[in-house]
Amino acid sequence: MFLIAVITLLVALVLFRFLFSGKSQRRSLPLPPGPKPWPVVGNLPHLGVFPHHSLADLARKHGPLMHLRLGYVDVVVAASASVASQFLKTHDANFSSRPPNSGAKYMAYNYQDLVFRPYGPRWRQFRKISSVHLFSGKALDDLKHVRQEEVAVLAHALANAGSKAVNLAQLLNLCTVNALGRVMVGRRVFGDGSGSDDPKADEFKSMVVEMMVLAGVPNIGDFIPCLEWLDLQGVVSKMKKLHKRFDDFLTAIVEDHKKSTGTAAHVDMLTTLLSLQEDADGEGAKLTDTEIKALLLNMFTAGTDTSSSTVEWALAELIKHPHMLARVQKELDDVVGHDRLVTELDLPNLTYLQAVIKETFRLHPSTPLSLPRMAAESCEINGYHIPKGSTLLVNVWAISRDPAEWAEPLEFRPERFLPGGEKPNVDIRGNDFEVIPFGAGRRICAGMSLGLRMVSLVTATLVHAFDWTLADGTPEKLNMDEAFGLTLQRAAPLMVHPRTRLAPHAYKTS
User: Which residues take part in binding heme (predicted)?
Assistant: First the structure.
């Protein structure tokens, strides 16, 4: 017995030493380099007005893998394709959850949505529901007529704009919201179907933009929890008021839909979600009204303003580069002609247009700084210690402008994606990390395929159906500044005069 006890003790000591030495070795690894933090607030002052700009500047000094201390929170920033690949591919499973934040708590129904919900079985259920019922290839193909009809409504409205200047952002928002609305809830959410401006749609867009601005503000309470109750910036108060407005909007939609269930001509996503309140389809617990509203909130906010702003950036770049605009128009004329509008079936044949779309996503990614992820466990990246619980930020904007990856990265040059260009085979769907506008890995944007189709179709239609002149100034002086927010908005809306270039019957709607 004594001998057994001694052997057991020796084995325990060996195991303890092995585990202890391994832990010590892991802890002996240095944290990634970064700017020296200030007392208490840490590196919060380093973020500046445009965090993706400030972090890109810091990365040039400290390297593409940085460590920041925001209040009491460890933050690591990836600012190169190779570093982003380490986090989002090699260690993707370890970074599949979100850190706690006030935006998710106060605006996204306390983490009951798809975007901010912690990784786990319920999140996978939500992801499957959206993938199967809204974003699968079949679902997108079945409803392509909806997108084409709403884009035709947009073209009709622009063709009848007359001589007045058009705020393109307003009409793009109306088009994308109604296209998504018909898919989500079976009807247009705003407007009378004429494509003309709608004050309620403008109010909705302002709500979405406000949400993105508030979500982009580094809230001190998130990083210094003991100060959360003070709401020093007034951010939480604004979030709560905005959430009430969104909740009223979404509650009305859900309640109206419940009353009209069974009268719709086709099954929309909300009908499917409501059916899962009765039958969870073998995928887990039944959905609640709150969870349904949280999913609708994700779709209407993440799926509308990102698409419309990307189209606005694309058209602005083409107006700024008239020879590129002419080249896209020639390609469209050759493929489509002058007697009809573009359809989604035309898109695979528009090589130069697709290069323009890729270049727009590269230079103007809709989410320049990725939504944060959190390390479930400590790990090692490139010889540095990444602490458990640390927040990961991927600077998508900086990566897509990295001179180590791109020749003249600040230039808008679609030719780089054409055969013979510098990166003709780059995939923007999360497989090639030098341009990841939708993110990558498990938390890649669920609506990526829909977003690509919508952006491509709308951009192609606007370029094909109209010639464009600016309402004020010349293309060379077009303001290309960014506005602050979680998404990449233009600082100044694109004010333009459209002039038809197709046969008159092409602009008629059914």
Answer: 445
d(CA 59, CA 344): 40
* 8-state DSSP, 494: -
Which pTM does this prediction carry? 0.91
Please indicate if the annotation marks 226 as binding a ligand: no
Q: Which two tokens stand for residue 70?
A: 């925001």
Average pLDDT in the 299-323 region? 94
Residue 423: both structure tokens together: 């990166």
Contact 368, 399 (CB under 8 A): no
CA distance 267 to 185: 9
- Summarised one tens digit per residue, pLDDT across range 213-222 is 899 889 999 9
Rounded-to-integer distance, Cα 172 and Cα 489, Å: 13
Rounded mean pLDDT of 204-223?
Answer: 91
pLDDT band at 261 (very low <50, low <70, confident <90, very high): low
Name the architecture of domain 48-507. Answer: Orthogonal Bundle (1.10)
**What are the angstrom distances between the C-alpha of 33 and each of 60, 67, 78, 94, 247?**
12, 6, 12, 21, 43
What is the token pair recorded at 182? 């018909």
The C-alpha atoms of residue 226 and residue 363 are separated, in whole angstroms, by: 39
Sequence-ordered list of residues with C-beta below 8 angstroms from that of 424, at least 6 positions apart, any chain = 417, 418
CB atoms within 10 A of CB 23: 11
Pairing of strands 391-394, 73-78: parallel
Q: What SS3 string covers 9-27?
A: HHHHHHHHHHHHHHHHHHH
HSE-up of residue 335 (Cα within 13 Å, Cβ side)? 22
